[in-house]
UniProtKB/TrEMBL annotation:
Active site, renumbered: 81
Protein keywords: Hydrolase, Metal-binding, Nucleotide biosynthesis, Zinc
Organism field: Lachnospira multipara
GO molecular function, one term: dCMP deaminase activity
Membrane-traversing stretches: none
UniProt name for this protein: dCMP deaminase
InterPro entries in alphabetical order: CMP_dCMP_dom, Cytidine_deaminase-like, dCMP_deaminase, dCMP_deaminase-rel, Deoxycytidylate_deaminase_dom
Amino acid sequence: MSQKRTDYISWDEYFMGVAKLSAFRSKDPNTQVGACIVSQDNKILSMGYNGLPIGCSDDEFPWCREGDPLENKYLYTTHSELNAILNYRGGSLDGSKIYVTLFPCNECAKAIIQSGIKTVVYDCDKYADTASVIASKRMLKAAGVEIVKYHESQREITFKL
Ligand SMILES: O=c1ccn([C@H]2C[C@H](O)[C@@H](COP(=O)(O)O)O2)c(=O)[nH]1
Ligand SMILES: [Zn+2]
């Protein structure tokens, strides 16, 4: 009888992998963010990526970062974490974990806390020095949300889509 495979991916690799794959759906030319929400018993509850709200055309709204606030992306994009929270239609997210490719901003931190998510597993923290992320960490810590840095495994998976 053949033995079971031993090189299968871990739960963390699986969920961060799903978050990373979700980010590929983003139309943001500068930063693509993905999120995956998981129950305490390792069931995927929801996913999201940063993008425009339903009905707001990807082709008509701006994607640039600078200039008139009404003519750049920041007032219009829904963040991946919020999309993942709003995409969930199953009831409560109490006690769940969120895997995110970028550390959540202050607005996402509020939504994470209010929705009952108890753990944030993040990959990149490129905006760690910004007021938004500093405030986010302050709120998450105050609310007792566990913050865990994802340690990238050296495993690479490639497949045709
Ligand atoms: O918590 C967050 C913070 C940011 N995002 C999204 C919002 C934007 O689409 C990009 C950031 O763009 P930059 O050009 O790097 O400023 O990331 C998010 O989804 N979640
Ligand atoms: Zn955010």
